[in-house]
Amino acid sequence: MASQSDRRATASKTPRAARPIRGTRIELRQSPIHGRGVFALQRLATGSRLIEYKGERITHREADRRHGRDTVDEGPDHTFLMTLDRRYVIDATASRGWAKWINHSCEPNVEALIVGSRIYIFALRDIRRGEELFLDYGLNVDADDDPARYRCRCQTSSCRGTLLGATT
Q: CA 142 → CA 6, 93, 117, 147, distances in Å?
């Protein structure tokens, strides 16, 4: 299993009422939080399926091998990995999909859910026009990895100070 930083999607049975939003309802632009971000062009309703997390389907072993390599313009430790299941990870590094640019927040407004063999981003609540989309990355790293490398920039009132998963 990928022990390096990987976002984890949650398996879910999608309600029949949840439908993909048609047309261009989101845009990619500079984020005040970090680098690029994804923003709503109009109000997005709670439960709306917004975008697919697209990329190459690779094994956890391959994800571990690739972790830490420099990605274009992002430098080391910038990964676009999301766990699909016990066997596979989606690596969005080379993907043109926008979902990989959704930034982290300790108070997310979207979540990643597994539907069949794909990962989609759904609205957790109503999202206002112009609002940036945020996931809680809940990263997992090796025990010998330096947690200081995963500092959170969300500045919300409930900020954990880290992109790492909540500890219990």
A: 11, 21, 26, 9
